[in-house]
């Protein structure tokens, strides 16, 4: 019988433990107070604004006409007085400068090569004319 009493006490203990357990309301709304923090950022001044916006339009080479330029320039540079080792360099540099920096830099490069006696005057004039035909504003 002692065993039955101990079991009865154990059952009561389980019931007591279950009664002591609190039931939480998971749907309870919690209110949190948010204090307004002072804005520590300094105010923007007129000079703080960085670039952005639209860039000023500039004359550059039209990317759509690259193949046309390449074949025409090869034909112009296929002149016997233009050294073979300079042809591809001049061809690429004229297009690269005109496409990225602007047509003025491209024309300046042609003048520079003419002054270095790499390009004869008639070939340089043909290349200038070709570059001016391929320009666009962007």
Commentary on this structure:
This protein has 138 residues and is mainly alpha-helical. It has a two-stranded antiparallel sheet. α2 packs antiparallel against α5. The N and C termini lie far apart (102 Å).
Provide a quick synopsis of the model.
This protein is mainly α. 54% of the residues lie in helices and 4% in strands.
Q: Which structural class matches the secondary elements?
A: mainly alpha
CA radius of gyration is: 41 Å
- Compute the number of helices: 5
Low-confidence stretches: none
Q: Which range best describes the helical content: under 10%, 10-25%, 25-40%, 40-55%, 55-70% or over 70%?
A: 40-55%
Distance N terminus to C terminus? 102 Å
Please state roughly what percent of the residues sit in beta strands, choosing from under 5%, 5-15%, 15-25%, 25-35%, 35-45% or over 45%: under 5%
Main beta sheet: strand number and arrangement? 2 strands, antiparallel
Shape: elongated
Which strand order do you get reading across the main beta sheet? 1-2
Q: How do the SSEs run, as a string of H and E? A: HEHHHHE
> How many beta-strand elements?
2
Helix and strand arrangement:
Elements: H1 2-20, E1 59-61, H2 66-77, H3 84-101, H4 103-115, H5 121-133, E2 135-137
Helix pairs in contact: 2-3, 2-5, 3-4, 4-5
Which keywords apply here?
138 residues; two-stranded antiparallel ribbon; 5 helices; elongated
């Amino acid at each position: 019988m002692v065993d039955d009493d101990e079991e009865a006490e154990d059952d009561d203990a389980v019931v007591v433990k279950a009664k002591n357990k609190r039931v939480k309301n998971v749907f309870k709304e919690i209110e949190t107070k948010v204090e307004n923090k002072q804005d520590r950022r300094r105010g923007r001044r007129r000079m703080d604004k960085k670039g952005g916006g639209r860039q000023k339009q500039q004359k550059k080479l039209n990317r759509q006409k690259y193949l046309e330029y390449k074949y025409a320039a090869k034909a112009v540079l296929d002149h016997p007085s233009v050294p073979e080792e300079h042809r591809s360099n001049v061809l690429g540099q004229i297009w690269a400068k005109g496409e990225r920096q602007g047509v003025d830099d491209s024309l300046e490069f042609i003048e520079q090569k003419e002054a270095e006696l790499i390009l004869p005057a008639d070939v340089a004039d043909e290349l200038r004319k070709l570059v001016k035909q391929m320009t666009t504003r962007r």
